[in-house]
Amino acid sequence: MSTEWESVIGLEVHVQLATESKIFSDAPVAAGGDPNSRACGVDLGLPGVLPVLNESALGMAVTFGLAVDGKIARECRFDRKNYFYPDLPKGYQISQLAEPVVSGGHLDIDLGDGRSRRIHLTRAHLEEDAGKSVHDAYAGLSGIDLNRAGTPLLEVVSEPELRSPHEAAQYFRALHSLVRALGISDGNLNEGSMRCDANVSIRPKGRKELGERTEIKNINSFRFVERALAFEIERQIGAVEAGGEVVRETRLYDAERDETRPMRGKETSEDYRYFPDPDLLPVVVTDAMLEQARARLPELPAAKRERYARDFALDDYACARLTGDPDLARYFEAVTATGVEPRQAANWVLGEVSAALNRDERDADDIPVPAEELGTLIARIDEGVISSTAARTLLATLWREGGDADAHIADSGLAQLNDDDELRRLAQEALQHHPDQADQYRAGKTKLLGFFVGQVMKASQGKANPRQVNELLRELLTGV
Amino acid sequence: MDSETVERLLRLSALELDEDARARLVRDLGRIVALIDEMQSVDTEGVEPLAHPLDAVQPLRPDRADPKVDRAMLQQGAPATRDGLYLVPRVVE
Lengths: 480, 93
Prior knowledge:
The complex is a heterodimer. Chain A is about 40% helix and about 20% strand. By secondary structure, chain A is α+β, with helices and mostly antiparallel strands. The termini of chain A are far apart. Chain B has a domain at about 5-40: Histone, subunit A, CATH 1.10.20. Chain B is built from three helices and three strands; from the N terminus they run ααβαββ. Chain B is flat. Chains A and B meet through strand 2, helix 2, strand 10, strand 11 and strand 18 of A and strand 1, helix 3 and strand 3 of B. Strand 2 (about 55) of chain A pairs parallel with strand 1 of chain B, so a sheet runs across the interface.
């Protein structure tokens, strides 16, 4: 019998904190800009400079700790992690090893079908980002841009409790929703605001001990986390089943080839020689800071989900999707505030609106149709003024041209045909054109009602009120 | 201090030493290690580890950015720059 394998996955996610200035200097934090235009003496590691901790970065870490129900260290410290690379000008990264600001805590991930699983966190600690190297522009030389150096990061480390690539992706999603809801990161994956390293090993199902693990570095999308891990797990199983073994190493995911491969030129063994940074004193989190962070905690995704299920009677899928993105949730709530039925609002927001966002590659904070107009559109369907087909056309028009939903209905003849006489005429026409089907219906093949409804809808160019058409046809066919 | 340890330390520190300097280093490090061994014989049972000699806590800085970074001045000390970038011997990825 062949062995059944299970995978053991832990994620380390670097979350870029949304501060104005760097973690230890007053140089601005922003993407882009001329090379080295945002790197001051502290970021460059010039002799004689001293790092001073950014109050907001610490506050954001505390906020995160409260949100995941972790333990906030009332006193924490910074350490130096030593290694040589040109985009790390000091020769060490200021990080936290022995005494991180947050220990423990947990995050609930959505497994679909209303199931969720609690994933425990090991820790979350503050550290500074490194700069960037440009390798291809100059012959025999590398260019160094230190704009990113000193950008505040919160590294969130999970326990190795994730059991599949899908769970890992869901964990990454949950963390993304949380930091955005907390307002401590813009969560912009394309710009590297959240980067993830995945540790993965395999073991025969049921065994306690962990197998040798590999680490996949620098994954920056939900989809890639899932794909990189799926590839890596298959690779490990293949290696072991072929009589080989898994070697502890760091690998990179190549999205184009959809594979992981060992990083080249890696030092034989990592030895970062951490020690307490003598430039920084012990950091104290005061009662006042804790209170302030607690007072500023917004409604968290998990709580919001419960509220949506309770107050709006939405299914698990809708709750998860809407609360997963604070901007989408805000838009949805604005639509329901116009008085429309919440489940209909959810259907439109998650259906047509989300599809259009995907198509146009826009974010949910950038929906071109005001929530009030979508509210009007839904109300007009409810009132029977427009059909759902016409409503979809109307949404497309509003999306493209903006403007007022009612004005578009009036201008474009999208209004539904509710005139009984006109509908009766169309229904009679349909029966006359298809006498055979009419006879079959009368002989008991009542499924053909749908066929006639379709004929009438077509003749009315989709404007006929389907409920009325149904009633009229039934009446005409049974000859009452 | 065996030569293997010294070799590793030199690599981690990115230092290159000639034979004489290396021999001196091995002697010096041996004496330093002996000193530390002696210190470690002190009974520290129940004593809190000291991370910093100052009895003070880290002052915090308000999160305000100063956009004025004088790149030209800062780059005066660099051996080579181009297009605003610091240039270094090519690093293989």
